[in-house]
């Protein structure tokens, strides 16, 4: 499975961005998918999780009410809609997936920079 993120960029505080994660390869076994982020000098942080059929989602407290995770299994894509962005949301954002054999896959990341 290969994961490729897109949609990052430089925005101002209060703006919105929509990140996408495109999965390719042996995608039929993908189940849970997640977005992580890593700010400079900090540990990688789990941002949001979505179940295999998209019926269950969870978020880290700092993004609740502002970010929305979703997926389109038919298109093998996952999304992260980010609203009301804050400078503290600045980070590299990574797509993560597990499959039915419990293998884990990571994308290369997409940079999000929020200026104040």
Oligomer: single chain
Principal-axes geometry comes out as: globular
The biggest sheet amounts to:
7 strands, mixed
Write down how many β-strands occur, each being a DSSP E stretch of 2 or more residues: 11
Estimate what percentage of residues fall within beta strands. over 45%
Q: Could you spell the SSE succession in H and E letters? A: EEEEEEEEEEE
- Parts with pLDDT < 50 across at least 5 consecutive residues: none
Kindly list the characteristics that best describe this protein.
116 residues; mainly beta; four-stranded antiparallel beta sheet; 0% helix
Nutshell version of this structure?
The protein is 0% helix and 56% strand. The protein has no helices and eleven strands.
Task: Tell me about this structure.
The protein has 116 residues and is an all-beta fold. It is built from no helices and eleven strands. It has strands at 2-6, 9-12, 17-24, 30-38, 45-50, 57-59, 67-72, 77-82, 91-99, 104-106, 110-115. The strands form two sheets. Strands 2, 4, 5, 6, 9, 10 and 11 form a seven-stranded mixed beta sheet that branches. A four-stranded antiparallel beta sheet has the order 1-3-8-7, with no helix packed on it. The protein is globular, with a radius of gyration of 13 Å. The model has no long low-confidence stretch (mean pLDDT 96).
